[in-house]
UniProtKB/TrEMBL annotation:
Belongs to the heat shock protein 90 family. ATP binds at residues 32, 36, 77, 82, 97-98, 120-125, 171, 318. One of its GO terms (molecular function) is ATP binding. It comes from the Bacteria. This is Chaperone protein HtpG. Keywords: ATP-binding, Chaperone, Cytoplasm, Nucleotide-binding, Stress response. NCBIfam families: PRK05218.1 (NF003555).
Length: 610
């Protein structure tokens, strides 16, 4: 017998609305239909385990096939199957009422409102009408003495339902592909979609005679069952052209939410131009998205890997995550797991941890800057390295330098360099005083330094070229000048005239005779503001980025050259002052172009006249 009917809903244009608003990406029809087939198969397996199904399970594959000539795509399973009455209940009533509710609620609203609806049972089936102008269901229930049923709908609210001949239990969904969806009749296109969304489904998916998925990916297993080789092999499957990961974290929790997965630490070196969206989100082994910014903390978006959770709320199309309490808990849990893993690595193998620091330092610093709870854990294993290559924790370093590097205000002064090569003279001068110098040359270090100054008690950071070595760490004892006040004023004027640059502020200082005759420095505050602005310090820093550099030129009153400049006659004093100034520029890598050419010529002339 055949039954015809109309699906009871309040609108006639439900399918155009579903097609336009419910699913942003048409290709996911295949994900939805294959997922339904897998669910039906898994439910049958569960019934067999409970003893409620006593028949032969046999081969439990989901088969996908395409017939370009007939313009059909067929998804077949050997799962629960449905009787005619169940088709009416699940397809016509429950699924359609869910779709109808969606339409009634959102048809008058902005398209963005679609993101607010949580997925409902059965709605996935109607994604078929995005690519098909007619859909057929052939289904036979696993229950004994039931007839197979055949349901047909052409995308209107009309359907027909009749008994059918079907030898085996399960369901075949046949899509008659619409003219505007020819791309989905190409086998290569379907294979791409299946590989993307169904690669790790728990039931075998067969396409063109080949199983395209791994039914038990490693994140579904216990860590005790897996070797390092298993983890690295899986990483290569996910990211075929990437270097081997540094290490990984296996997530496995079932309370207060379900979450499994593996997060890999890749080698990113010290770059912020990394590729994000490398973490894949799954729900019961169905690929959902690689937009995981609400689930994974911002600083861990650098990681690679897989997260699988049925508890992450999705909208109907599963395209958008919803930031609710469950997501926040998962986010917090992942942060904690990463911090615990890093702490364990540091504790168990400090040398190995130090070797990896150039790769993982970026993660750690980014995390400390963006997450207060992570900072509290990470401060015990975050490392700094001095120019000699020795690593310290923050606490170790404070203890290491505090005896020698306290200033007259009882502040511990941490000296650092951002470029040991170009700042070598300043590093050397600091080391000659018995000071230690850190190497802080990473892209996040300007921000990291600012954070440490806020967090560490009575501690300030100064770059080695921020001032003359005697002023970097000011002590009570002062170096005496051999010049009178009048001589100092005369020397200052001579240098001002020789330099003739309004951005160079000349001062005469009593330095050691062994120090350079002239030292050029950029004050710490000014340079730091400009550094912060260059690495995204926010709107308030823009003014500093546009200001011209304002340098301090410290002329060493106690250097023999000071006496020569003062005693020289005519233009000789000015030339000598310019030469000493150019040497200071040269030491900073600031002597270029015409000024460099003039310096070389002047040096040659001086050598010739000696």
């Amino acid at each position: 017998m055949q039954e015809k009917g109309s699906i009871s809903i309040h609108t006639e244009n439900i399918f155009p609305i579903i097609k336009k608003f419910l699913y942003s990406d048409h290709e996911i029809f295949l994900r939805e239909l294959v997922s339904n087939a897998v669910d039906a198969t898994q439910k049958l397996k569960s019934l067999a385990q409970l003893g409620e199904f006593k028949g032969e399970l046999g081969e439990l594959k989901v088969k996908v096939s395409v017939d370009k000539e007939a313009r059909t795509i067929t998804i077949s399973d050997r799962g629960l199957g449905m009787t005619g009455e169940e088709i009416k209940k699940y397809i016509n009533q429950i699924a359609f009422s869910g779709a109808s509710e969606f339409v009634e609620k959102y048809k008058e609203k902005d398209a963005a409102a679609k993101d607010q609806i949580i997925g409902q049972f059965g709605l996935g089936f109607y994604s078929a009408f995005m690519v098909a102008n007619e859909v057929e269901i052939f289904s036979k229930s696993y229950k004994e003495d039931t007839e197979a049923a055949h349901w047909v709908c052409d995308g209107s609210t009309e359907f027909s339902l009749e008994t059918a001949e079907k030898a085996d239990r399960g369901t075949d969904v046949v899509l008659h592909v619409a003219e505007d969806s020819d791309e989905f009749l190409e086998a290569a296109r379907l294979r791409t979609i299946l590989t993307k969304y169904c690669k790790f489904l728990p039931i075998e998916i067969e396409f063109e005679g080949e199983v395209i998925n791994q039914t038990a990916p490693i994140w579904t297993k216990q860590p005790s069952e897996l070797t390092d080789e298993d983890y690295t092999k899986f990483y290569q499957e996910l990211y075929p052209f990437s270097e081997a990961p540094l290490f990984w974290i296996h997530l496995n929790v079932d309370y207060p939410f379900n979450l499994t997965g593996i997060l890999y630490f890749p080698k990113v070196k010290d770059e912020l131009q990394f590729q994000r969206n490398k973490i894949q989100l799954y729900s019961r082994q169905v690929f959902i998205t690689d937009e995981v910014k609400d689930v994974v903390p911002e600083f861990l978006m650098l990681l690679h890997g897989v997260i699988d959770s049925p508890d992450i709320p999705l909208n109907v199309s599963r395209s958008f995550l919803q930031a609710d309490a469950a997501v926040k808990k998962i986010n917090t849990y992942i942060t904690k797991k990463v911090a615990d893993k890093l702490a364990e690595l540091f504790r168990k193998d400090r040398m190995g941890f130090e070797e990896k620091w150039s790769d993982i330092g970026l993660f750690v610093k980014y995390g400390m800057l963006s997450d207060e709870k992570f900072y509290e854990k990470a401060k015990d294993f975050a490392l700094v390295q001095n120019v000699g290559g020795k690593f310290f924790t923050l606490k170790e370093y404070q203890e290491f330098v505090q005896a020698n590097q306290k200033d007259k205000n009882d502040q511990t002064v941490v000296l650092y360099t951002t470029d040991p090569e170009s700042q070598h003279a300043f590093v050397q001068a600091a080391q000659d005083r018995g000071y230690d110098v850190l190497k802080l040359d990473a892209v996040l270090d300007p921000h990291f330094i600012g954070q440490l100054e806020q967090k560490l008690e009575k501690t300030t950071f100064k770059r080695v070229d921020a001032d003359t070595v005697g002023k970097l760490i000011e002590k009570d004892e002062q170096q005496e000048s051999v010049l009178s006040d009048d001589d100092k004023t005369k020397l200052q004027e001579l240098y001002k005239g020789a330099i003739s640059n309004e951005h160079m502020h000349v001062q005469v200082e009593a330095l050691s005779p062994q120090d350079a005759p002239v030292v050029i420095t950029l004050p710490e505050f000014m340079r730091r503001m400009k550094d912060m602005q260059r690495t995204g310090g926010g709107g308030g820093m823009q003014m500093f980025g546009s200001l011209p550099d304002s340098y301090t030129v410290s002329v060493n009153a106690n250097h023999p050259i000071a006496q020569r400049v003062l005693k020289a006659e005519g233009e000789a004093g000015s030339k000598l002052a310019r030469q000493a100034y150019d040497l200071a520029l040269l030491a900073q890598g600031m002597l270029k172009g015409e000024a460099l050419t003039a310096f070389v010529k002047r040096s040659a002339d001086l050598l010739a006249t000696e």
